[in-house]
Amino acid sequence: MALRTTKSLTRGALPLRIRDVTVTFTQRRIALSAARRAEASTTALARVSLDVADGEMLAIVGETGSGKTTLGRVAIGLQKPTSGEVWLGAERMADALRRDLRGTRRRMQVIFQNPYESLNPWMTVASAVGEPMIVHGLVSRSGATERSKSLLDTVGLGASLANRYPRELSGGQRQRVAIARALALDPQVLVLDEVTSALDASVRGQIVNLLLDIAEERHMTYLFITHDLHLARYAAKSAVVMQHGEIVERGPTHQVFNSPRHPYTQSLLLSNPALTSRQRVMTPDRESE
Known about the structure:
Elements: E1 16-30, E2 37-52, E3 57-61, H1 68-75, E4 83-88, E5 91-92, H2 93-99, H3 101-107, E6 108-111, H4 115-118, H5 125-135, H6 141-154, H7 171-183, E7 189-193, H8 201-218, E8 221-226, H9 229-235, E9 238-243, E10 246-252, H10 253-258, H11 263-270, H12 273-287
Parallel strand pairs: 3-8, 3-9, 6-7, 7-8
Antiparallel strand pairs: 1-2, 1-4, 4-5, 9-10
Helix pairs in contact: 2-3, 5-6, 5-7, 6-7, 7-8
């Protein structure tokens, strides 16, 4: 399925600013002697700074272990930085979470890689979508069902699936349910953590097109974490490339993919010859937007 691209979105203030963020994970190791213990640390992010514009779909690409997922978790407050700060609008993330934990969480949602693992197998589709709204006090339990059906329609699923269980759905249908559940809280920032990697190639384009439509209608900010360079190239307006916890390249997507400056970005593109060959055909339409 051919991918559609977003129309130009009105740019506003920078709702998300990441400043000099470092994340270090420490692991304790027990040596051969029980009396001796050692600690090993791993730096997942190293002094990362990033601005994400209002309404932007930013692709974060890189190989496994490059720090993509950690950056996404830091951006929405699921991972506390070892040092550095994250700002949401004019307020520090840490202050916003202390002031209003539930309200801040509502503004930022995440959709994970495997929809089956992120959905409760014992809850119907309608319950899975409606539960966040009930927990946050947005609707009554009786009103959650109708709201859930409306959201299912938004993501291209009929209300007839409302009483189904995740095990009765295909992978693409489950991911649409996960998207509906995230939209239930009307977030401003949505982290998409490898949302298409567990899906068949024929379904990936459908899911990305759905996400682009939703971003356009709701003026949402997306962090699109992916190792799929093809999807990143045609779905996002801007991209950052990560290696070993650092951002090695950033800029408009067409620039990063057509004229990469960093050797690591060049090696990523060379490892995907299908993408490189398609650029010659599809780049002009992309750059003319």
